[in-house]
Design goal:
About 35% of the residues lie in helices and about 15% in strands. The protein is α/β, with parallel strands linked by helices. Strand 13 and strand 14 form a beta hairpin. Helix 1 crosses helix 10, helix 2 crosses helix 5 and helix 7 packs across helix 8. It is globular.
Length: about 475
């Protein structure tokens, strides 16, 4: 019998990051220019850094975020989470938006009501991307998919349609999740409760995540359900967390749809382990009063409040140009609101010619998120438009091996490079985590960057571009 495949714990698809949200422009090493601020995200896996960076902008700042992910299924999920984040208060209250966002973000199974919201979002995103295939127009100027190849946009449409109309007899997510746990633990499966407790108390808690409660962590390790903020049945598959993986079986390539993401570290890391509100970290009898779910809810709600404030601060201004800000005409707003208020069943089956081309989302003036092809990182230096463009560059632990000396050519003179370390990849030993950090420093220096003086964080390594 196998002792388990420990490297399988983090999965082969990055659905969430292995570190908390960061404002990538709020660093003592970041030099904020007067013009447009450009941030490149490589393999971030979720929109935590995008949302956090937006909330740190001043009213006069202009931000352009460029996103490169490993595959189109992660791009589709990024678009979905941003779509939910930009829902207007008229369509979804802040508290409900927070609950739906976290449910879709971190649960393998969701409530029926949340599934209807996901289906409607998928239908709207599918239609908007279909429109970009036939014209140069954008359904929402904040969300730009026009730089993706046609076949990649076709793939996005296929994914959204699969979410909108999942298989009539879907595979049991609980069985799929349990199969991953069995494969990962091997002979330790029968004593899995002890394994879960060890990973929590001897790894996550020892690495500064003692806010994560045993009850919630073990529940997630067992079932894949991390956030239960409302009473209800969490029994419907979260289609946005399912993807296809190709295996070799007796010489043939077989595609298997299932859950291929993280089953060890957890979705609490992105929003639930840090907070500026110290009251949330209080203890009684040496136990935290609040949990990582509570902190995730508070942090995401605060991010959404900042988005709404940034949008509302523009309401008294003259109507902006649609080509340069996230706005839309009164006619299109009225049409879209009518569609949003229809029952979910009619939302997902409305004929395309009856739907507006404009997404009814918050208009964040001066903010744009562009998605680039998965293979585009090493091609950016070949195009003049990207030369010395990026003020800040983030790279995940899973993509750091793709960095090389060409990175210097696309970095602005005072650019900051932030690299995710392996501190929360729990299957790695302390020696492997330390060795990974050393290798990250070598790669950054070979790419033309030097470590900053403050390297106290075990989660992210920060570098600045070497002077010419």
């Amino acid at each position: 019998m196998s002792a388990g495949r420990t490297v399988e714990g983090a999965g082969c698809v990055t659905w969430w990051g292995f570190g908390p949200a960061r404002d990538l422009l709020n660093s003592e090493n970041t030099v904020r220019s007067d013009g447009e601020l450009n941030v490149l995200l490589v393999g971030s896996g979720d929109p935590r850094h995008i949302l956090k960076t937006i909330t740190g902008l001043t009213d006069s700042d202009t931000l352009h975020v460029w996103v490169i992910e490993n595959n189109m299924e992660v791009v589709a999920r990024q678009l979905l989470l941003l779509y939910l984040s930009l829902q207007t208060p008229e369509n979804m209250s802040l508290h409900k938006k927070t609950e739906v966002f976290l449910e879709v973000f971190g649960n393998s199974e969701i409530r029926k009501e949340t599934e209807e919201t996901l289906k409607h979002a998928a239908a709207q995103l599918s239609l908007s991307i279909t429109n970009t295939l036939s014209s140069d127009s954008h359904a929402h100027p904040c969300l730009d998919t026009s730089l993706l190849k046609f076949k990649e946009r076709d793939e996005l449409v296929r994914i959204f349609k699969l979410w909108e109309r999942p298989p009539s007899v879907p595979a049991s997510v609980r069985k799929v999740w349990d199969a991953r746990v069995r494969q990962h633990l091997g002979t330790r499966y029968d004593s899995r409760q002890g394994c879960f407790d060890w990973d929590l108390s001897m790894k996550l808690h020892q690495r500064g995540c003692d806010i994560i409660s045993k009850h919630q962590y073990v529940k997630w390790r067992e079932s894949g359900v991390a956030f239960e903020m409302r009473e209800g049945l969490y029994q419907t598959a979260n289609q946005s967390l399912l993807s296809t993986r190709v295996f070799n079986h007796r010489g043939d390539r077989v595609a298997v749809r299932g859950y291929w993401g993280d089953i060890v570290s957890g979705p609490y890391l992105s929003f639930g382990i840090e907070t500026e509100n110290k009251d949330l970290l209080k203890k009684q009898n040496n136990q935290h009063v609040k949990t990582a779910q509570d902190i995730s809810e508070v942090n995401v709600l605060a991010l959404f409040e900042c988005l709404a404030t940034r949008e509302s601060s523009l309401l008294n201004e003259d109507v902006p140009n649609p080509s340069s800000s996230c706005c839309q005409s009164t006619d299109s707003l009225t049409t879209e609101e009518k569609i949003q208020n229809d029952p979910p069943s009619s939302q997902t089956h409305t004929e395309p010619e009856q739907q507006t081309q404009v997404l009814d989302l918050l208009r964040l003036n001066g903010v744009k998120v562009s998605f680039l092809s998965p293979d585009s990182l090493n091609k950016l230096p070949l195009k003049n438009k990207y030369r010395n463009l990026f003020n800040s560059i983030f790279c995940s632990a899973s993509k750091v091996h793709q960095l090389d000396s060409s990175l210097r050519e696309i970095a602005a003179p005072d650019a900051v490079l932030v690299i995710e370390l392996a501190n929360f990849l729990l299957d790695l030993s302390k020696e492997q985590v330390s060795g990974f950090a050393d290798r990250v420093k070598e790669i950054a220096e070979e790419s033309g960057f030097t470590a900053t003086h403050d390297q106290s964080s075990d989660v992210y390594a920060v570098f600045t571009r070497k002077k010419d």
